[in-house]
TrEMBL record:
CDD domains: DEXXQc_SMUBP2 (cd18044), SF1_C_Upf1 (cd18808)
Domain of life, source organism: Eukaryota
E.C. designation(s): 3.6.4.12
Signal peptide start and end residues: none
Residues covered by the AAA+ ATPase domain: 218-565
Identification of the protein by name: DNA helicase
Domain Helicase ATP-binding: 200-435
Catalytic activity field: ATP + H2O = ADP + phosphate + H(+)
Length: 626
């Protein structure tokens, strides 16, 4: 394949700005239309909303944010007071609104639907959902409430700023990473005589060691290609520890919170001075202790902030006691002053904590926040890099001296919403220029990982080849079709079967690692989703009752043989089929995991889960590129 001609940074950034604007417009239009035209009950059925909630409690959470605990109204709660099935997840941005009653609900029009108070879902329990509100002066609506997931444009803003910043750079200011990424230089040759590192983790396999040694020795760019279950994260942990040992300062990023938290959890065990940036509501519980917000309370530097926080809490509490407008305004005024002082002090404290951390971890867009302004890092490590837009990667990379990207370009790329938008042929000189951009292949779905690989070839990449997740018969097909038959199943997993689990019987279903059930023929008719509202929500979806019944039968047999429902997952490419499966399986087998192969249930609907916002982790076995 001929080496593609890379775009100039100016062409790249200008085109990205246009493409990002189109993507944001597509996403906003979809989500606005959906929220405006769909009744709360339909949004709830689609997993995007929870209706009939009441306020159980209100407290001051991290960073002085107000946290609401919402419970189902006693009239509609399940037998145990539980919330109905829903797709809201920690980290989702939601609007909290007063629920329109009876006739008002029917009359509700797009323009009358306000977004209400916004917040981040910070805890989801069987009987309640907690929302940390955004903003300082928020009036919580009274009465019956409902919450609905809304789109989030912070990621776009960060990418847009970054593209504009890059666009303004003079050529003399281009970093070595930029020069390599845009074909102005080749990567520096990796010396062949670098000493083998003293490994901290004795379990590393040969391909992992080679990838780490290569990443350590590379000067500008290194790619680590990790097919599913090959220990990409495992490898990155050792790499980060090795870098810290070499006294390097490291910024670790991923496209989603979960990708970053996975690393924080594993890295924290090694007692490295680290800090995790990001809204604590979006972090895994085990990670919150390392978040900047918690460190600003618990570290030595935190004392200067503590007093003022106490005073603010007391003022906030006094607000609840007064309904008098003038008094409330006065308290708001005092709170505003206190907050100003609080932020000043917090800024100083934050600066100290960040400067003292050898490893800083954030989402790609989180790295664009003010906390990292002026901070310098020797290496930026990006995990799940093939799930991230290139513009997103440049947020932490703009000043980076070196980058290590880990990912798998053979799994699905990030989802782009504006892809199917109608394009008009540009004309004249402008047309030529536009056409030129396309020829240079600037698209949103081409990732930095893809582009670097195409530009510099596989010499800048090392592949992890031993996988620790699948029986070798399950691995055989993807290995052969996608990974040039290079995957090897680790001894521990290559022959494992369900029947080998404790308390599981040896049956036809537990003895085989991979079973195909042929459903061709007249008995398994497919149904296209024909309910208009459901179609809007579920997209062009299909279902098949017969196949769902077969899946249920198989699950029943596995459970009968002793497999725990909590160890079973059923996946399908169609969201309509997911709904059928949920009906058949959820109640009969609590704990069973159901999902669409491409997106978890909560991301099935239009416009509300941006691939550009914190994207949930998608099960890798099911996302090989098709
Ligand atoms: N060298 C090793 N020896 C033993 N087990 C390993 C080794 N490397 C990875 N594993 C195990 O393999 C599994 C997958 O590892 P990890 O989560 O790091 O992989 P990954 O490639 O990041 O996964 P994903 O497919 O989700 O991207 C984990 O259970 C991990 O403990």
């Amino acid at each position: 394949m001929p080496t593609p001609i890379p775009p100039s940074i100016t062409t790249f950034t200008t085109t990205q700005l246009t493409l990002l604007a189109a993507e944001l417009a597509a996403e906003t239009a979809q989500s606005t239309a959906l929220l405006a035209s769909t009744a709360p009950s339909a949004l709830a059925r689609a997993g995007l909303a929870l209706t009939n909630l009441t306020l159980a409690s209100q407290r001051t959470g991290l960073g002085g944010r107000i946290v609401l605990e919402l419970e189902p109204d006693s009239a509609v709660a399940g037998a145990e007071g539980e919330l109905p099935e829903h797709g809201l997840r920690v980290g989702d941005i939601v609007a909290v609104q007063a629920q329109p009653a009876g006739a008002a609900r029917k009359k509700e029009k797009a323009e009358s639907r306000e977004r209400g108070v916004e917040g981040v879902v910070c805890r989801v329990q069987a009987k309640s959902v907690h929302v940390a509100l955004e903003g300082d002066e928020v009036e919580v609506p009274g009465g019956k409430l409902w919450i609905v997931k809304v789109a989030n444009d912070v990621t776009y803003k960060r990418m847009t700023y970054t593209m504009k910043d890059m666009n303004r750079l003079s050529e003399a200011a281009y970093t070595p990473v930029m020069r390599v990424a845009f074909g102005l230089s080749s990567t520096s040759p990796v010396p062949s005589d670098v000493p083998v590192p003293t490994w901290l983790d004795p379990t590393l396999n040969a391909s992992q060691k080679e990838a780490i040694a290569f990443a350590l020795a590379s000067r500008e760019v290194a790619l680590i290609h990790g097919p599913p279950g090959t220990g990409k994260t495992h490898t990155l942990i050792e790499l980060i520890l090795q870098l810290v040992q070499r006294n390097q300062r490291v910024l670790v990023c991923g496209p989603s919170n979960i990708s970053v938290d996975n690393i924080v959890e594993r890295l924290a065990r090694h007692k490295v001075p680290l800090v995790r940036l990001g809204h604590p509501a979006r972090l895994l519980p085990g990670v919150v202790a390392h978040s900047l917000e918690v460190l600003t309370r618990t570290s030595d530097a935190a004392a200067i902030v503590a007093d003022i926080r106490k005073e603010m809490d007391a003022k906030q509490a006094s607000l609840k006691k007064t309904r008098n407008g003038r008094e409330r305004r006065a308290v708001y005024g005092e709170l505003r002053e206190l907050r100003k002082e609080f932020r000043e002090r917090e800024k100083r404290c934050v600066r100290e904590i960040v400067a003292g951390s050898k490893v800083v971890l954030a989402t790609l867009h989180g790295a664009g926040g003010f906390h990292l302004k002026g901070e310098k890092f020797d290496v930026v490590v990006i995990d799940e890099a093939s799930q991230a837009l290139e513009a997103q990667c440049w947020v932490p990379l703009i000043g980076a001296g070196k980058v290590v990207l880990a990912g798998d370009h053979l799994q699905l790329p990030p989802t782009i919403k504006s892809l199917n938008m109608k394009e008009t042929e540009p004309k004249g000189a402008k047309g030529k220029e536009e056409k030129g951009k396309k020829e240079k292949g600037i698209t949103l779905e081409t990732t930095l990982f893809d582009r670097l690989l195409a530009l510099h070839g596989s010499s800048i990449k090392r592949m992890l080849t031993t996988q620790y997740r699948m029986h070798e018969k399950i691995m055989a097909f993807p290995s052969q079709e996608l990974y040039e038959s290079k995957l090897v199943a680790a001894d521990a997993v290559k022959a494992w079967l369900l029947k080998d689990l404790p308390f599981v019987d040896d049956t036809d279903d537990t003895r085989e690692p991979l079973v195909f059930w042929d459903t061709q023929g007249g008995d398994f008719a497919e149904k296209d989703e024909d309910d208009t509202q459901a179609t809007t929500l579920l997209g062009d979806s299909k279902s098949n009752e017969g196949e769902a019944a077969l899946a249920r039968l198989h699950v029943a047999r596995l459970v009968e043989a002793g497999v725990s429902p909590a160890d079973i997952a059923v996946v399908t490419p169609y969201n309509a089929q997911l709904a059928v499966l949920a009906r058949l399986l959820k109640e009969a087998y609590p704990g069973i995991e159901l999902g669409s192969t491409l997106f978890p249930l909560d991301t099935c609907c239009l416009g509300l889960e941006s691939p550009l916002s914190s994207r949930p982790h998608v099960g890798t076995q099911s996302t090989w590129q098709r």
